[in-house]
Amino acid sequence: MKLQWLGHSSFLLEESTGTAIITDPYDEKLTGFKMPKLHADIITSSHNHADHNYFKEIMGSPIIIDKAGVTDISGVSITSIPSFHDDLQGKKRGKNLIFKFRIDGIDVCHLGDIGQDVSAELVDQLMPINILLIPVGGHYTITAEQAYEYISMLMPDVVIPMHYKTPDSIIDIDKVDSFLRLFEDEAVIFAQEEILEFERDDFAGNFTKVIIPKRIFD
Q: Is residue 157 part of a domain?
């Protein structure tokens, strides 16, 4: 499978036969990032905010998944799991969907704008995870420290942080630095490629790697 970070919480995931999924497409006016014009077969949206559900820039006739449930489309299994956008059971910011993808035998989890603390019940629903896409910028989601707790309990092979401040971002969230400081230097990899490729055999390591993809904006 192929994975490309598009900015904010948006990723392009591509299955080996070409099925393309875009997560949480965003409005440039809210994020500062320019959403690239890409084709998708499937769009997933974690919640109904314009920095996560801006569908009109996506080309093709994609199936939109924005409700809890289980779906199988063109060789990709997608499970969407309800959660909360805050630590007050949604009273402050509402609900959030977590998406679990099974692509080419690889388990990918996109936590959306998760705001609640990790729990044993949620861990049971989500494991196993090969690649975890997790917000780390705080303010509107979990903080870097809370993200680290999720990682400690979920034990993914690879972590790719999202929803953090970059030079392009205009949202009041934290940079990725405080999150990266929680890991040993050898666990953090700054990728030189915009598009990351993974195979099932890549996940035989005994510790979690944090990968920072090269930004398409560089």
A: yes
Scanning the structure block, which residue is given the tokens 């780390």?
Answer: 136
Beta bridge pairs of residue 12: 4, 22
Question: Average per-residue pLDDT in the chain?
Answer: 89
* H helices, E strands: number in the chain: 4, 14
CA pair distance 173, 208, nearest whole angstrom = 25
Phi-psi region of 128 (alpha: psi -120 to 50; beta: other; left: phi over 0): beta
Residue 218 is assigned to a structural domain of this protein: no
Q: Is 146 helix (H, G, I), strand (E, B) or coil?
A: helix
Which CATH number is 136's domain given?
Answer: 3.60.15.10
Please state the domain count of the chain. Answer: 1
Residue 154 identity: L
The conformation of residue 118, written as its DSSP 8-state character, comes to P
pLDDT tens sequence across 138-153? 888 999 999 999 999 9
Structure pTM?
Answer: 0.93
